[in-house]
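Private note to self, pasted from the team thread so I don't lose it. Backbone tokens:
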């Protein structure tokens, strides 16, 4: 058993690197309809909410309305743009496997799609969360470099027993990150952009804190996986996110070892506060 409780040996029918064939021809019309419903819901509300690199990526990969995208088709353009490819996975894969894929510019996306009665939420990332939520940002060269650096850092963190700190960095950037732009705050996090309710909540609701991103600050902040975020961290640019990965994580982990976790809704005197949430 590996650290995260999932055996590193893949289940029957799954390759050693935990990938499977997407088998695009096998998707049913009903499954394509779920994608179309989710796609049209999100693209109706994301202009003015999602950041430009996300919207450009959506167009570049032509993640169109006709249904679940064929990875072979979108990988031609994605690889040309940033050297990334999407590979099909049966679901969550062991951390070590996940990081190794990211470190090699492969994004493991769930091959399955949620059922019609799960449109608003599901625990495990499905193909809509992964391909609509995560993949468009991988067309941006800076973010593409960040995701590869994250994978390389993850492999190191695993070996240092520091995964919990790095998982927070992933959570508050890749999954639930906000970007500051001259036109206001914009979404780049996949967990937000693939969710209708959170695409609205993350920008409009007075309840959550919205604080300036800081690497150590963010890594001291726990997160919840079962509800909207109580705190969102805002980056000034994607370049700032990439620059953060150039830090000495060994020194950061040593510092964090002496620091208690912060309350999930804490606001510190040194925080750059965009919104002081009501935490309603
Ligand atoms: N596996 N397929 C897949 N997708 C993920 O997003 C993912 C994963 N395994 C582990 C994981 N995410 C998180 O624990 C990361 O923080 C490492
Ligand atoms: Fe995700």
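Design output:
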């Amino acid at each position: 058993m590996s650290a995260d409780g999932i055996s590193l040996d893949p289940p029957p029918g799954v390759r050693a690197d935990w990938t499977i064939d997407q088998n695009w021809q096998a998707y049913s019309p009903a499954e394509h309809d779920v994608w179309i419903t989710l796609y049209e819901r999100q693209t109706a509300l994301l202009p003015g909410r999602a950041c430009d690199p996300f919207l450009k990526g959506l167009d570049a990969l032509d993640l169109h309305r006709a249904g679940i995208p064929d990875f072979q088709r979108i990988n031609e353009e994605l690889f040309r743009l940033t050297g990334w490819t999407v590979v099909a996975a049966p679901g969550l894969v062991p951390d070590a496997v996940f990081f190794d894929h990211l470190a090699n510019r492969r994004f493991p996306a769930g091959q399955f799609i949620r059922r019609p009665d799960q449109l608003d939420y599901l625990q495990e990332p499905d193909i809509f969360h992964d391909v609509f939520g995560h993949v468009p940002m991988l067309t941006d060269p800076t973010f593409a470099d960040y995701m590869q650096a994250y994978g390389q850092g993850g492999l190191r963190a695993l070996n240092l027993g520091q995964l919990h700190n790095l998982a927070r960095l992933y959570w508050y950037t890749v999954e639930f990150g906000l970007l500051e732009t001259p036109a206001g705050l914009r979404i780049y996090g996949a967990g937000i952009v693939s969710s209708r309710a959170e695409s609205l909540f993350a920008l409009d609701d007075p309840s959550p804190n919205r604080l300036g991103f800081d690497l150590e600050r963010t890594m001291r902040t726990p997160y919840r996986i079962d509800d909207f975020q109580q705190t969102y961290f805002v980056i000034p640019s994607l370049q700032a996110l990439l620059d953060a990965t150039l830090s000495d994580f060994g020194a950061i982990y040593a510092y964090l070892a002496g620091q208690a976790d912060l309350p999930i809704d804490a606001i510190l005197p040194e925080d750059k506060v965009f919104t002081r949430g009501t935490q309603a």
